[in-house]
Structure formats: structure tokens, C-alpha cells
# Entry
Amino acid sequence: MNSPSPILISIVDDDEKTRGALREVIETVKNLRFLSDYGDTELALQKLPNEKPAVVLMDINMPGKNGVECVRQLKPLMPETQFLMLTVYEDTNHIFDALAAGATGYLLKGTRREELELSIEQIVNGGSPMSSGIARKVVQSFRRPAATPNPMAILSPREHSVLELLAKGCVYKEIAESLGLRVPTVDTYIRRIYEKLQVHSRSEAIAKYLTR
# Structure
């Protein structure tokens, strides 16, 4: 049996020490492989579309175009690539700007290497990893007054079960195994959930679930 292909990782960060530290982490993990790193977004915009890494670790505070704008321009050119923000910014403006630009995850610098490794695995398997404090801010931003009708009432029992597992951090494969479904079926349920709840992302759906 062939072993799975390693996850190719690129880094965009203007701090050389940070790039070196991240590269060291990547090179010590069996299923990860360092592909490239860039100290400015202009070069990243030129090179990354041809390299097609599976995951890009992206800083926000960069000279010239910032990391959010870099993601906004790269995502249409690299739809299969997952962008994981790795930054010091933890305010909601930066968080939602990054997610709206096409980022799939958001971690704070200083994240433990074990959490970083797990986050990379989660993001390539359909997850949206976030530092705990970031996830809390996302949830709080979507809170509604108590009088607001329960949005969960419009979901079927099966859709509710899928959303419950999604909120627990399960990826599509884990949800499928737990409910005895196929992964494409799970994807269909999640798209229906998004439509019914009038949301556009996993984090928005989870926020509505948690504030039901």
C-alpha cells in the first residue's frame, strides 16, 4: 500500500526568523513537506500559483500588499489551496477580513507546534482551525438577542446531527463515519444547512448553532 503524499506547505512572512522556525517545524513532521517561503507578498503572488502548495501559512502584517490582500488575489488562482493565517492580530476586523478574502483558518503566532501540525491536517481535511480565542470572537460576533427565533428549527433531524458534529470540530470524513454516510452526502447536507441558515461558511453555521 502506497503511503499518502506529503502535504506541501508554503510560508509567506516578512520575518526571516519566523519563516525559519516554521520551516523547521514542517521538516520534522513526517506527513508535511516544506515547499517554499517568501518574505514579501509581491513575490508570493508571482510564484505561488505555479507551485500550487496544499497549504499556505500567511502572515497579515507584510510590506506592500498585506497578507489579507495577498490571499484575496491568490484564492481565485489557487482554489484548491488552503490559506491558514498565522498572525499577531486578534481583532474581529482582521479576522473577518481574512476569512472573507478566502482564508480557511486563523491562528495566532505563538501557537504550539502540536496545534499547528493538527491545524494543517484539519485544514486539508475540510476543517477550519482557529485559535480558541479567535473562535470565541467569531461566535460572539454572531450572537443574537434571546428573542430571536431558533434558526435550528428549520433543519431536519439529520441536518441537525451533521451540524452538531461540525460544531464539535469533526471533518467531513469523521461526520460520514459517525452517521454512516458517504463523504459526498455529508457535503450535500452541509450545503443545505448553509442555504437554510443563510450563511456562507463553517464558522457562521457553527455560530448560529452555538447561539440557538
Remarks:
- Residues 172 and 184 are 9 Å apart (CA to CA).
- The first strand starts at residue 7 and ends at 12.
- The chain is about 50% helix and 15% strand.
- The chain has a mean pLDDT of 88.
